[in-house]
Structure formats: structure tokens, C-alpha cells
Amino acid sequence: MAPKSIISLFSLLPITAVLALNPSCAPGGNFDFTVWSLQLPTGSDGSVDTIKSKALQGCSGYTGPTFYTDKTNGELILTAPGNPDLTGCATTSGSEHCRTELREVNKSGQNTNWPPTGTNTNTVRLKVVKADDGTHGTAIGQVFAAEASKPLAEMYYSTKGDIVVGVKQDADSDQVVIKLGNVPVGTYFTYIMSYSNNVLSISINGNKTTLSTFDWDSPNCYFKTGNYNQGKTAVTSEVHIQSINVVHS
């Protein structure tokens, strides 16, 4: 067995190689959902349908109309409907948009959060097949402040392939929007969201941007990842994920 220091080192490295995925399995046969639950665009406003971690796990785990396996390559496909006034989709409390989005939980399946000390990273390899037509596009990843119940950092992908992040100056302020890069629609890329050692940063294909946390006082946070549609019209957004890796140490 490799020493713990070596294991820790490799766990922090970006994912560049993707393990073979099984197209015959539900998403839980290809992805580790022991640290995720799933919010769906169904249910009722303020009380969307949520699939617990245990139900997501394994080759026979949950699959549905907006969360399923690509039968050609085993990737995870997440779709989300557009403007709820036009599509009738259900929104979470405090949101005007619909989502098919993973929310971080602990190994017992309960909602969790963590202090921004040590290492806290979420590394995702994906492609956006269809972005929504919202101001900045589809939200594909978040660092969410638990107590404030607001996103500290929300990363978006637009119809033009622009990737930006909105960072709130505090819980009640509007987002300050910072461009991170551009990846053509339908092209794979890897992002790393990190709030480690009290430093917030995002890397796109290895290009790292360190972000100010303004007036936030090192809030406990959790990760969200997936497809959070910000659209003005009824256009359905579509995200394909090859790998997800969360590290806390």
C-alpha cells in the first residue's frame, strides 16, 4: 500500500484521464455518489424532488428523464428546463430557476458543509452540449455558503462558450462577474473549484484564477455541480459529465 502522503498527493492532482464508464449502468454505477444528493426540476416550488445519496448509488441506482447515462459512452447526462413560467418546472426555495444539480452530503447522506481551511476541491470533467440563454448561461458549479444560504461563487457557461464566475461581495450583494475563459460549445474541459486554506479559486484546464471573497468571513460551504438553468426562454440546457472528484483534507 502506498504511503498516505503519496495517496494524498495523487488525490489532489487534476483528473486528466477518465476511467472507462459502463453505458449499461445507471449513473451510480460510474460515479461516486456517496457524497452527493440530487435536486430535480420536479415537485413543487420550494419543495423540489430530491434523490438521496443512497438511492443514487450503484449500477441499478436512480435514473430519470433529466438524469441518466449516455448509452454510447457511459457519461452522465443532466438536462434542465428553462424559464419555469414557460415550462412549469419546480424551483427550490429562494430561486427563480430550475435545476438538475448535485448537492454535497456527508457519508451518512446528510447535508453537509465544511470550513474553508485545509483542502476543499471539486474537480469535474465535462462538456456543455446546450447552454441556456440566461445573462451568463448555465450554472455548472457552485461554492455555496451554508449559513447564508447563498452562493459564494457561481460558475456559468454561456451559449458562446464563455465561462465566468459570479462572486458575491457579501450575502446580500449582487455578484461581481469575472471571466475565466472560453471553451467552444460541445468541447470537453476540466474545472477545479477550490476553497482551500481560506483562498477561493477556480481553474479551467489548468489556468487558475484566484478570487476575492470580499466581506465574507470564511463561511462554511459546500459544493454543488450539474445543470442549473438560468434561461429566459423555455430552452432546455444539457451537460455531459465524464468525472467528478471531491477532495477534503
From TrEMBL:
Q: Which residues form the Alginate lyase domain?
A: 31-248
Originating species = Trichoderma gamsii
Keywords assigned: Signal
Which superkingdom, per the lineage?
A: Eukaryota
Q: What is this protein called?
A: Alginate lyase 2 domain-containing protein
Family annotation (SUPFAM superfamilies): Concanavalin A-like lectins/glucanases
**Pfam families, from UniProt?**
Alginate_lyase2
- Signal peptide location: 1-20
Please name the InterPro entries in this protein's record: Alginate_lyase_2, ConA-like_dom_sf
